[in-house]
Amino acid sequence: MADQPQIPASLRTEFGKGAARRIRRDDKIPAVLYGSGTDPVHLTLPGHETMLATKVDNALLELDIEGSKQLALVKDVQRDPIKPIIEHVDLVVVKRGEKVTVEVAVTVTGEAAPETVVTTENNTLEIEAVATNIPEVLEVSVEGAEAGTQILAAQVEMPEGSTLASDPELLVVNVTQALSEQALEAELEAAEAEAGIEKDESDEESGGAAEGGSEGASEESSDSE
């Protein structure tokens, strides 16, 4: 993990939705800093710097709270579903050298064997890592992997200083056989046949109704004569 971004922060005494809206109108972000055995600290963070710093998961920030330095891990970022703004940030106090448990994204690298399909069954894994050395991603290589290959959490290589916290038997990546052209054609034919049966049935019903209507019309014509 790169050097921690330094973010100036100020203590806030106003709370509630109205106060939060006023803070965001000033291009700032309301935040809460949680610490072990201490009361939550309500903060106001600068909008632009915080937006840049929280683009990565598990961002580690060095807060300057009115002259007092504090290392903090970003635990949750609430974003507006429409506008590109952050509504609120939850932070946790950490110390240098302290280990924390976080979720890290899984990324698949390499090319599996021909005619296979690679499926990522779990996109993140929970690990324990030093707060100042949290990996951004966990790489899983499928280079040359044959159909039937299954990569479990225990088989994912952990970066130095990190240990797995998720269930070791958790399925992370699954490599299966791709459908052959013949199999695809067979599925297509089966689908077409099923659609054809449904169509034939509807045609028979509509045909029967048309015949019935035609007979009725003939009888009416005969009666009128």
Automatic annotation (TrEMBL):
It comes from the Bacteria. InterPro entries: Rbsml_bL25/Gln-tRNA_synth_N (IPR020056), Ribosomal_bL25/Gln-tRNA_synth (IPR011035), Ribosomal_bL25_b-dom (IPR020057), Ribosomal_bL25_C (IPR037121), Ribosomal_bL25_long (IPR001021), Ribosomal_L25_dom (IPR029751), Ribosomal_uL5_bac-type (IPR020930). Residues 186-225 are annotated as: Disordered. GO terms for molecular function: 5S rRNA binding; structural constituent of ribosome. One of its GO terms (cellular component) is cytosolic large ribosomal subunit. Keywords: Ribonucleoprotein, Ribosomal protein, RNA-binding, rRNA-binding. This is one of the proteins that binds to the 5S RNA in the ribosome where it forms part of the central protuberance. Belongs to the bacterial ribosomal protein bL25 family. CTC subfamily. HAMAP family: Ribosomal_bL25_CTC (MF_01334). Part of the 50S ribosomal subunit; part of the 5S rRNA/L5/L18/L25 subcomplex. Contacts the 5S rRNA. Binds to the 5S rRNA independently of L5 and L18. This is Large ribosomal subunit protein bL25. It comes from Mobilicoccus pelagius NBRC 104925.
